[in-house]
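Page 47, continued from p. 46.
Same chain as before, 212 aa.
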Amino acid sequence: MRRPSWDSRTGSATARITAAFADENELTAVLRNSTNRGKGYAVAKGMRHARGAYRLFVDSDLAYPGCQITKLLLELKAGNDVAIACRVLPESRYVMSPTFFHYLYTRHLMSRAFNRLAQRMLLPGILDTQAGLKAFTADAAELIFSRQTLTGFGFDLECLFIARLHGLKIKQVPVDFYYSSETSTISFVKHGTEMLMDLWRVRQNARRGLYA
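Result:
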């Protein structure tokens, strides 16, 4: 059943464009939040609303072309429950303009430091928890996102922890990562501090049995 769109004269340009697209594509549904409740909340809402056999989310900056998405879907079809992009595997590569090298190198170093800590505290062996491309089977998505509690950028940590806690098979996939013109919306200080707190929150939630 097709879902009605809201008045095209209201809302953001993105809302109007996506609503118009959904009106012409009956397999597409547009979900809208009245307030910004965080990336984790939006992703979980989309995952639980979806009805496909495979469910995937990808960052909107087009850093991962369609062929990279296909890599993850193939891993799910091969029998894995969860497939995640991993930008630090030897087969992965960055494609970018030299003018952004300094910024991306700094971001890479901070990301590596965070992932080392995440491996020690929560997810040993998971090399790149924060890559914005992850795919799940329908069963895995229902199990994970029905238990997710974090709504900010640290939700990736929680989702992977839940997957591992329940014995799901996680595949780390090498990818090509395209970095073009805009800097990340993530603040190293603000969001970095929040994600460090999220590491602690996941540990506390696990001790309280919230993910069982």
